[in-house]
């Protein structure tokens, strides 16, 4: 009931994203049911039926990834002050978000079942009754266990993935090593000169007045006389403006320092760049070997789903996985390239954001590149004179994967914007113009498009090269 109330009371933008998840679930469930219909109409070819079911894995993975991205941006799943007192802690919010995702995906699966039965001719009273009766084996009774089995994976896997992504994480308090004195604000633990405990909070620490003696009275150095000009107060530790100033002024500080509002970007790229390159090479190799070993060297696009060799599917999946693994490191590299050659405030801000958000933005961007390269390769290999090169279900699958990946990227961008809300507010308090923030966002988008666009075309050409022979 709580999940239903939170779902009903959400904002229109949140409801729209949930409806998009339901639509993606409906498309994926319909593809799974279509594979069942093909198996019922062709009982003598289990290999082709299994391969058509395997071609449903990319839409299933894209749908689940999109559902997780939507759940991460849901305002109702974010812990807020006062919710734990009424029993809505992190674990309960995670359960509510997983239940909401399961409800959205179940709604989409039910819509897919109704549309499937309508095309079979089992449901009448609407246009296109029985339009695909021959293909979906309308003369064969529909097995209920198999139907329920194919309708279950999308809601079950999506809810489990959301629960795993939003699981409560234990936060260990950051302890200071014994025998080390606290550092000054902005020193980040690298300077040899360290301040004493409470140096910035003690009254009279700089003028020698108050209950505590001045520093010069202890080490024998001359103290400041009343005629000396007054010293300015030191910055307050933890102030957002001070932290951002120190982060910009010291771009190579240690990453283990106390985190400011915008923490210094990691100096090392995210792990996975060399593995991603290796997996891409392995995927292209497997694809080339599978095409060479197969009798036919072209990838057919029938009315149902692609039925090329299984090695081709494995090669494409490995290539997509490699792009996903390598994209965060490449995004981090783009951010580092933006900060080369004496950068100004605009390039420094855009590069730091790219480096800090490399994992959050890079993974969906890599998946978009993989889907785009696959669609480009299939479009290149298709015969322009053939009228049935792309069947209706192939079009549904390609459209579903492309739409889900692009929507996931946009949702991840929204999540990154929400995570930078405090940083943006601190910059505005410091006097940064709004036009500079917009220019930094446009610069980040332009650099990513200029880098990943040619990379996608290169991977697509390499993926289509063995199949074109």
Automatic annotation (TrEMBL):
Residues 204-246 are annotated as: Disordered. The keyword Isomerase does not apply. It comes from the Bacteria. The chain crosses the membrane at residues 20-40, 52-72, 93-117, 144-166, 273-294, 314-338, 445-468. Keywords: Membrane, Transmembrane, Transmembrane helix. The keyword Membrane applies. This is Uncharacterized protein.
